[in-house]
Amino acid sequence: MIRDFFRILVVDLGAGRGSVATLDGRDTVAGGSGLAALLFDRYGHSNRPWNDPDQPLIFAIGPLTGYFPLMSKTVCAFKSPYHDQYAESHGGGRSALSLRFADLDALVITGRAAKPSCVNVGSRHLEVRDVSFLWGKDVFETGKMLRGLFRGAGHRSNLRIGPAGERGAAIAEINADTYRHFGRLGGGAVMGVKNLKAVVIHGDAVFPLPESREYPGVFQEVYTKLTDTDMMSKYHDIGTPINVAVLNELKMLPIRNLQRTSDPAIGNITGEQFAELTLLRNSACAGCPVGCIHIGFERERFQKEHRYIYRQVSYDHEPIFAVGTMLSIENCFAVLAIIDIAEKMGLDVMSAGVALAWATEAVQKGILSERETIVPLAFGDSEGYRSAMQHLGEGSNDFYRLLGQGTLKAAEIYGGKDYACVLGQEMAGYATGEVFFTSQALGLRHSHLDSGGYAYDQKETGKDLTRAVDFLLKDEQGRVLLTSMVACLFARNVYTDELLATCLRTVGYGALAENLSAVSRNIQQLRWKNRFACGFKPEDTAIPERFYEIETMKGPIDRIFFDNLIQEYIKAIRILAGTDRAG
Amino acid sequence: MARFNVVLEREECIACERCIGSCSDSLEMADDGLAQMAGGARAGNDDELETDERGCLMDGAEAFPVNIIHIFEGGNKII
Which H/E stretch holds residue A20? Predict the structure, then answer.
C-alpha cells in the first residue's frame, strides 16, 4: 500500500511556507471525496465566508491513484463563491498522477499571498513564487509561461486561472493542463481571492508498484475490462458528444435556453459532425487508456492574404450543449470559437453558456438591452456570443460582473427568473425529466454526475417516489465511493464494489476492502454534513418555471411528481446528514 | 543549561536539501534522506540540540519551505 494514513502538504500562502501533516482515517474515508471532506472539516471554517483567507483549497487523490487504469481524477474541494457552501469539483489532466508521484495524498492551500503567486510543489520542494507578471494573462498565455518557468514536462500538472478567476467570478474555473478543468462552482475564484494564479505540481519522485504476485494479474483484468467494452470505444471514438444526437432524438436536449428539447438543425453540431469536420486528435488524462479528450481546431485569419493561425480547442457534450444547442449555434467551428474564448477567460463554459442563453431570452423579452449586454445577443449569432463571452470573462460592466456571479443573481435584479436554467447551479446538458432535475437541483455538487438521474429518467417509466429517491441515494453512495479512490466516473460500470475491493486488497488496503459499504456511507454523510454546516437549506431551492414547461419523448413534465420528488429527496438527504431532527 | 533548545521535526522534512546550502554547520542530510541536526540528539522522530548560539538556524527556521525547525528560548517558542 502507499500508506495507511494520509500525507498532506498544507501550504500557507501568507507565510509562503508549508508543513507536512499526517492524518489518520484511511479506513474510514479512503481518499478523494472522503479525504477532501475530512480536510475541510479540519481546515475549513463553515461559519466564515468563502473568501476568508483562512479557507482551504483542497486537492485530494485516493488509495488507488496511480495503481489502476482510470484512477486518474483529483477531487478539489472548497467553500464555493457560488453558494458560500461546501463544494467539490472533479478534474483530471495530469493532476492526480502528479500528486501521487509527488508523494502526497492531498494538497491544502490556505491563506492569501501578498502578491499574485504560484505554488510550485514536488516531492522534495515547495515554493510560493511571486508571479505578478502573470496576473491578467489568459489561461493559455499563463500555461505557456508556466511550462517555461517550471521544470518537469510530462510529469507535471499546471493548474491555473484566467481573468475570470482573478476577479472572483463565481463561475470561474481552474484549468488543468489546458484541456481539462475543475470547472464548476467557482474554484477559479477561490484561487483568485487568494492571489493564487497557479499551482504547479511536479510528480518527480518514484512510485513503487506493489510487489505482490496478484497485482499484475488484477491490473491486466481491470485493463482488459476497461478497454474491451463498447462503452470505452464510444468514449474514444466520438466521445461524450455522441449524446447530442441521442438526446435530440429523445427530445431530451436543452435547446435555445430550454425553450425546446429537440430540433432538426442540431444535426449540424452532433458529435459525429464534430468528429468529421473538426477533430484533430484525442488526448487522455494521465493514467487513462481511453483517451476521451477530443481536440478540434479553430482557425483565425490574420491577414488580408489567406494566412491563418489555428488553435486547438477541446470539446465535449457539455460545452457543445452550453454554447451550441443552448445558444442555437448550428456550426461546429462557431461553437469551438465560443468555447475557446470561455477557456481563455477561465470561465466554466457550462455556466457561461447557460448564463448567456438566459441573457439572450431576456433581451428578446425586453428586460435587457445593449445597455447591459454591450453587444447584440440573438440566438444563432455566434459573433455576438464571442464578444459577450469575453465581456463575461473580463466583467466589463456591472451587468456582466453580476452575471458572472450566477444567472439567478442577475435574474433577481433584472427579472426573468422563470427562464433562468439553474438547478443549484447552471444546468447540465440533459433535459431528461423530473429525476435528473431533482438530482441536479439538490445534489451535493449540483452536478449531472452526482447520481445517474438522467439515466433513470430515460429507462424508467413509472412515477414511484420511493424508488426514485432510493435510486438517487444509492447511486450517489456508489459514485462517492468511486470518487474517493479516485476513479473517473466513465469507469463506473467496470469498477463494481467487488472489483474495487479486489483492487484495494491487492495493493494492501484489506481493511478498507472489507468495509466498502460502511465507508461509502460514511463519506456520503460526511460530505452532506459539511454542506449543511455551511448553511445549506434545501427547502429554499426554487425550480424555475421553465423546467416545468418542457416536454420530452415521455411527455410533459409531471409537476406534482416533480414537486413531491423534491420534497421526499430533501427529507432523505436531511436524514442522511442527521439534520432532520428539530433544534 | 544552554540558552536555546532547537527541535527538528524529521518526519515532516521534504528532503529539499535547502538546509545544506544555508546552514551546513548545523544541518546535514542523513542516510535516510531526511535532514538531521549535526551534533544533536535523536528523540523519537525529532532531533534536538541545546545551544547558546542560534547561528544560521534562525534564518533556516524562517526561510525553509516547510516549517520543521522550532527554536525555544527559556521554554518559550520563538518560531
Answer: strand A17-23
- What ipTM goes with this model? 0.79
Q: What's the confidence (pLDDT) of residue A467?
A: 95
pLDDT at A581: 57
Evaluate whether A336 touches A313 at the Cβ level (below 8 Å). yes
| Three-state SS annotation for A170-185 | CCECEEECCCEEECCC
Give the model's pLDDT for residue A582: 46
B20 has a chain A CB within 8 A of its CB: no
Strand order in the sheet with B46-51: B41-43, B46-51, B4-9, B69-73, B76-77
Which tens digit of pLDDT belongs to each residue from B13-65?
A: 999 888 877 788 888 899 998 999 988 899 999 999 999 988 888 887 887 89
The CB-side HSE value for A374 (13 A sphere, CA atoms) comes to 19
Among chain A residues, the shortest Cα distance to B35 is held by: A124
Candidates B11, B17, B65; nearest CB to A126: B65
pLDDT of residue A439: 96
Q: What's the confidence (pLDDT) of residue A423?
A: 97
**Which residue in A19, A21, A124 is closest to B16 by CB distance?**
A124
Q: Which residues of chain A have pLDDT under 70?
A: 231, 581-583
DSSP, res A454: H
* CB contact (8 A) between residue A15 and residue B67: yes
How many other β-carbons are positioned within 10 Å of the β-carbon of residue A374? 16
Q: How close is the nearest chain B Cα to the Cα of A526, in Å?
A: 28
Query: Residue A364 class from Cβ within 10 Å (0-12 exposed, 13-18 middle, 19+ buried)?
Result: middle
Distance CA A104, CA A128 (A): 17
- Which residue of chain B is at minimal alpha-carbon distance from A204? B16
Position A411, amino acid: A
Taking the alpha carbons of A246, A249, A254, A257 in that order, is the dihedral positive or negative? positive
Q: Which chain B residues have a beta carbon less than 8 Å from that of A15?
A: 67
Q: What is the pLDDT of residue B1?
A: 79
- Enter the pTM of the model: 0.95
Nearest to A6 by CA among A88, A92, A105: A105
Closest-CA distance, B18 to chain A, in angstroms, reads 9
CA dist A575 → A300, A445, A567 (Å): 55, 18, 13
Distance from CA of A120 to the nearest CA of B (A): 11
Comparing CB atoms, the residue among A17, A21, A22 nearest residue B65 is A17
User: What's the confidence (pLDDT) of residue A583?
Assistant: 40
**Cβ <8 Å between B67 and A17:** yes
Residue with cell 464534430: A274
Chain A positions contacting chain B at CB under 8 Å are 9, 15, 17-22, 123-127
Cell (9 digits) for A298: 479553430
Q: Which residues of chain B does A18 touch, with a Cβ-Cβ cutoff of 8 Å? A: 65-67
* Nearest C-alpha in B relative to A128: B65
Alpha-carbon distance of A184 to A90, in angstroms, equals 8
3-state DSSP helix/strand/coil percent for chain A, to nearest 5? 45, 15, 40
pLDDT of residue B24: 83
Contact B14 A124 (CB under 8 A): yes
A125 and B67: CB-CB below 8 Å? no
Cα–Cα distances in Å, from A227 out to A112, A239, A321, A456, A507?
44, 14, 27, 25, 22
C-alpha–C-alpha distance, residues A323 and B28, integer Å:
57
Chain A partners within 8 Å of B64 (Cβ): 17
Using alpha carbons, list the distances in angstroms from residue A160 to A465, A467, B53: 43, 42, 44
Vertex A428, ends A452 and A500: CA angle to 5°?
35
